[in-house]
Amino acid sequence: MTETPFRSKLMSLKEDLKSHSFWKAVRCEFLTTLLYTFIGCGSWTLWRQEEKRQIMDERRLIEYELKIALTFGLATATLVQCVGHISGAHLNPAVTIAMLVTRNVNVLRAIFYMTAQCAGAITGAGILYGLTPFEAHGLLGVTTVHAEMTKGQAFGVEFMITFIMVFTFFANLDPKRSDMGSRSLSIGLSVTLGQLFAGRTVFISENM
Question: Residue 1 pLDDT > 50, yes or no?
Fold first, then answer.
């Protein structure tokens, strides 16, 4: 019997499900998204009462925004470095969808990755919520929109900063490039860039 392309793809998906490396990659996506959410959203906490009173002071606000941006960026760089060789270190459904559309991953892997990412993010947020005293919660990374912005404008900002991150991710996949530096650092810096740009207008969910 001649093997059809559909049958060939189906067999490939079945092989993925039986593969140890496939499930290892899915576990990595769960763990890294959990850690990313836990560490990144944890940077929003306000531990001292004076921090809460002074947060609207311009200098304090800049320090607060810088701390958050650097935390998210460094967390991204660290986790990409840790698991990039195992799962590709997507850490984000936006990256996984882009990889699916460009046929860098198959449908099965994309579904399992996104499920693991969402589950990891929820678990990380739950752990952070449970370990943080109520008085120190602050915003805990909850996405909110500036009062002077419309939802459409906020969506546009989110779209652009997410595009920059995905664009950077794909730039590091180009096999023709010979000028590569640190892949993990460049991706982390793209996240920091988005946080610094949009922190005032949209309390960011770029990679949450």
Answer: no
